[in-house]
Structure formats: structure tokens, C-alpha cells
Amino acid sequence: MIQIKNLRKRYGKMEALKGLTLEIEKGTVFGFVGPNGAGKSTTMSILATLLEPTSGQAYVGGYEVTKSPKEVRKLIGYMPDFFGVYDNLTAEEYLDFYGANYDIPQAERKEIIPQLLELVNLSHKRDAYVDSLSRGMKQRLGLARCLVHNPEVLILDEPASGLDPRARIELREILKELRNMGKTIIISSHILPELAEMCDVIGIVEEGNLVAFGRVDEIYARMQETKVLRIRLLDRFEEAMSHLRQKANVSQVTHEGNWLVVGFTGDDQQQVELFRDLAVSGFPVAAFNEEQGDLEEIFLEITKGVGS
User: Fold this and answer.
1) Which InterPro entries has this protein been placed in (predicted)?
2) What is the pLDDT of residue 307?
3) Domain CATH for 257
């Protein structure tokens, strides 16, 4: 449904996208994750025909975004990270306004709008003025606006930003319903666990480079190759850190109180040998255990060193 081929975008000397290439299949909920400034919004703006790339191609539904922007706009619903609302309109009037802009007949709009409000759980707010809605409600209304012309693709830039836990859960349930309707959805965030709850596939971008792509469970399995070991010492912390950093299977060592936190890429037998080596070398090890890395640690491990 969406193809991006060697996409580059420069702003003067700064290169926001550095040959980005990826493909998203129809009906997929794709999570685009990376820190602020990584290139997520730039990519989405290009897909939404709002920004021209410096080079490369991007296709939506078979249409190249720079050559066939009108056809692409019929296929997409785009919600930027910051979007305007008309405060002097009710929720129903707001959707009616955008429906009219898409040349949807009035009789059809009257049928569609109640359905959209029900989908985003705002039926009880149809007569409420937009400026009276909470942030979460405005986000859901913005999502309804994206759907007013029944697009095949939704491009949602940081839709969960600033939402409280309940509002994020409501958004997640709406996205599940849209996936069941066959929509292809691109959703961005700088928070990996937030997307892991919502998406089938994720792509991690850092400084304009795609550094990981795949199903959430596949990326998680890949990163389990790096274990997190916690070693509690009585003293000699600096010596132990220096000693560990010389080991081939140790990727990083940090000091937290009486504990050393060690990134380790070896197998179980090599882990036993590392523990034995510390003991033989005379380091006062009081405890030694392995912990499960969480999704934030996975993100940090994947992007480590990309921008250096």
C-alpha cells in the first residue's frame, strides 16, 4: 500500500532523511518510532503531499506523491502533531465543514457524521463546541475528521502525545476498530511502549536512518540477544568496570549505587565464565543476576551509536 524508496530530504546543510526505504502492506498498523528530530514528521509530510523530497520516491496506493498528489489525497486521512480546530463550531458542524470540503453531498454527510462520532465515542458531544472538549476528545474528533471521506490510509503524527492513560486506551481501541475495517494506518511516537500496544509492525528511525523494521515480537526477540546483567559489589567498582569493558561479550557497563549494570551478548555458558572470571580476579561479588530488558532499553540499544 505504501512504498518509500531511497527517500532523502535536506534543509540547507541538514539532512533530515538519509535514503529511507520501507514498505507497508495494506491493512497494517505501522508504528513509526524515534526521538524528536529523527525524521518521522518529515516522512509523514512527504506521504501527505505537503512536502517535496530532495530525492527518492514515495508511493501511496500506487500513486507517486509528487506526480499524483490529488489522487494521493483522496486515499489518505492526515492528522499532524498539532492541528487547528474551529472553536466556534460544534463537533457536528466541524465534521460537516470538512465533509463539504471533500464535496460530499449534504444528505450523505448527515448519514456519515453520526457514524463517525459514534466510532470515536463522541456521540454525546455532537452539539458541544470544540473549544469545550478535552485534549483527548479533540484528538478523537481530529481522527473523525481524517475519516470523513473514508480514506484507505491514515497518517497520524503523534496522536497520543499529551493524552492521559484513559485517553490512550480509548485511542488504542479506536485504532483496533479501524484495523478491523481494513484501514492501513501509520502512527508515530517517540515512545516505543506506546506504539508496541497499538501496532503490528514498527520501524525505528534515528537521524534520518531506518535502524530497525519488523514485527514487535521479532524486534524484541532480536534484542534479547543482548542480556542485561546486574552485579552487586562490595567495593572496587571502577576497577571492575574497567575489567569488564575489556571482555569481548560486554557491550556496555554502567554504575548504579552498589550495582554494575552490564550489557552482555554471550550465551549462558559464557555468562557463567564471566562470573567465574570476576571471582578468580578477586572482585567482591555479593550478587549476580540477569534481568529482562524492557522496550525502552531495546530502543536505546537499537539506536546506540547511530548518530555518533
Assistant:
1) AAA+_ATPase, ABC_transporter-like_ATP-bd, DrrA1/2-like_C, P-loop_NTPase
2) 47
3) 3.30.70
